[in-house]
Design a protein that fits this description.
This is Patatin-like phospholipase family protein. By secondary structure, the chain is an alpha/beta fold. A hairpin with a 5-residue loop joins β9 and β10. The protein is globular.
Length: 472
Amino acid sequence: MPNPSDNSKIKKRIGHPMFPHIKQQHMAKLYNQLNVHNPERMDDSKKYTKSLGDLPDNASRDQLIMDTGSVPSDAGCAPIYTPSTTPLVVSDTPPALVSSTPVLVTAQPPPPPQKHVFTLCIDGGGMRGIMPAIWLLVLKEEFEKRGIMDPLSQIFDIIGGTSIGAIISLGVGHNIHPTDLIDLFNKNGAKIFSRTFCRMMTNLLPIFKPKYTAENLYDVLHEKFGDLKMKDLQGKVVITSCTRDGKPKIFTNINTSGNQDDPIFAHENDFLIKDVARCTSAAPVFFPPQDMLIKKIKEDGAQKEIVEKTVSYIDGGIWINNPAGVVATMAVTQIHKRVFSPDKIHILSLGTGDSTTTISDMPAFKDIVAIVDITMSSNSRGVDNSLTELFQQNYTRINPPLVESIKLDSANTKALKKLHQLAGCEYLPGKDGKKSWQFDRESPQGKEIYLKISKFVETYCNIKKSEQQLQD
């Protein structure tokens, strides 16, 4: 402990009462050294040592000025100490501390967002995607019954999907009618999931190749979207995908950078819709990856440059089969400007059936398809559990359990019949007397689904009515 009559070392280290260049953990020690011969100040120095330890790591220098101020235990913040205007000079007589009144600083929270955000999210699930397509038709008809004739792309602020759910979401964003989306399965399912004899023989060999080629799928996507680009979509979409080495990827026509001239966003907004659809639906085992030319910013010290790189993408269900978590995050960050207000976010999440697929006791190569199904189902359940806790009644999930296992690529008549029934449909005669699959809101399955859809529509209508009244 230094003698107060010889404070040269301390004097070199202290040039101002704000103690620049002195680490926080040394300040209490220096304070005690200066007051060791002044018993009347020792109690205060202990108080100072304690209050200093309570300060956050990023406390500013102004908060580290020596004082003995205290704050209530429930204040949730440290006091700000007012610096002396007189430089501290170390002499034989320890300096008197500057008295000040502690000032409490509380961060003012940003105002809560006023806008209600409505989002639509659709899971992946191969041919089981016909179920959410059917429910979108019921949803649209329910809106029209209430006089809302807008396309779904204008009703929902964000539309998100994974795999087949992403293809449906892109269709909604392009204002494709739900009836045409249903036909995607009834008329094209067998075409998409078909193999030539040569392909079947190849799959029997002890080498791994995807079960199907992508040509038929790409033909169907071209038929639906042509050469339209992401920037041509009428709605705001969020599409999940994944690189072959497991890095999540989001394709979106929402500029998340905040820079209107962002070259990366401009490049990806020019992606063809059908190419993005191929990326998100390239499920391992079923289809080969899709290559995309990606632009990235490469940093070399202070230098930055944009480089191009070809990246192979696979199904987004590998990391998040239920895209509701990604869509909710986008709603909070992009629309509500990072203010989390769960009572202002409304999520309609459409699943493709809660799978009952299991893996055998001794998994083998034949279980690969089952493993893909279980992986997608399990992460869908995980997202569902989290969002149910976060958003509670504002999170509407429609995902009936599958009575029996239906494979992701089952496109035969028997499988389609089961899927229609699970979606709440019955084979009923129409106005022309011909029978067809129709949603039956009176059936046990259809009734439960319809109640959820009608409640969501009612919530939407009531909120929009209230917002209109406020504007008037």
